[in-house]
Amino acid sequence: MPQTPDTLTSLYPALALVQPSLSDLGAAVAPMQVPAGTELFGENTPCQGFPLVLAGEIKVSRSSGDGRSLELYRVGPGELCLVSSACLFRTQPLSAHGVTTKASTLIVIPSAAFNRWLDEPAFRNEVLGLFAERMADLTSLIDAVAFHKLDRRLAAALLGHGHHLAVTHQTLADELGTVREIVTRLLRRFEREGWVALGREQIEITNGAALRALAATLIN
């Protein structure tokens, strides 16, 4: 079903004030019907424009060198794509890829029009608000990836050596296959909980029962 300007501005109210308007852009922003599983943009490729989802959903993910993929976020009707925004802001290749999860309808705003729209405070504020929201989401994702089961593995590594350990944070990081900064952050959390006391290359176990209870969840 064709999307009317009223439909678009109901999803994206800031578009009501932008110049050039959607009507001015004409056929350049004609709605596209895209099947599920279509790759809309790829990593390390130039951004072809700014997608606005009218129906359906785009999954935005980042790939690793070994072929694994990590979902960053999803874009639904009325939402904006952070990766596309960042690419257009800095004129750099895309840092992730986007694939439709279901049959979708979208329009792609040309980069020149997007850059002009940023002169409109309402649209600029909406894009900057998106950055704030998505950054909060990505921070939570980073925490989940970085600390998933690592706190339990660290608790297990501290047990079985008595109440006083002469060990550096770097040694623990090497043992757990992570970086020292993450181990230090977790140990400080343990210290705030009252489970350990930290000294220079020294760790004192002050609540072994709590550490054992956390380590026991590794098997769950």
| Average pLDDT reading | 86
Which regions contain 5 or more consecutive residues with pLDDT less than 50?
none
Overall structural class, as computed from helix and strand content, comes to alpha+beta
Radius of gyration: 24 Å
Please indicate the percent range of residues in DSSP E strands (runs of 2 or more).
15-25%
- Give the strand order of the largest sheet, numbering strands 1, 2, ... along the chain: 2-6-4-5
- Through-space gap between termini: 49 Å
N-to-C series of helices and strands:
HHEEEEEHEEHHHEHHEEH
- How many β-strand stretches? 10
Q: Overall 3D geometry? A: elongated
SS field, number of helical segments: 9
Query: Which range best describes the helical content: under 10%, 10-25%, 25-40%, 40-55%, 55-70% or over 70%?
Result: 40-55%
Largest sheet: 4 strands, antiparallel
What is this structure, in a nutshell?
With 220 residues, the protein is α+β, with helices and mostly antiparallel strands.
Describe the structure.
- The chain has 220 residues and is of the alpha+beta class.
- It has 9 helices and 10 strands.
- The chain has helices spanning 5-11, 22-25, 82-90, 111-117, 121-147, 150-158, 169-176, 180-193, 208-216, and strands at 32-34, 39-41, 50-55, 58-63, 69-75, 97-100, 104-109, 164-165, 196-199, 202-205.
- The strands form 3 sheets. It has a 4-stranded antiparallel sheet. A 3-stranded antiparallel sheet has the order 1-7-3. It has a 3-stranded antiparallel sheet with strand order 8-10-9.
- A hairpin with a 5-residue loop joins strand 4 and strand 5.
- Helix 6 (150-158) crosses helix 9 (208-216) and helix 7 packs across helix 8 (180-193).
- The longest helix is centred in the middle third of the chain and has 27 residues, at 121-147.
- The chain is elongated, with a radius of gyration of 24 Å.
- The N and C termini lie far apart (49 Å).
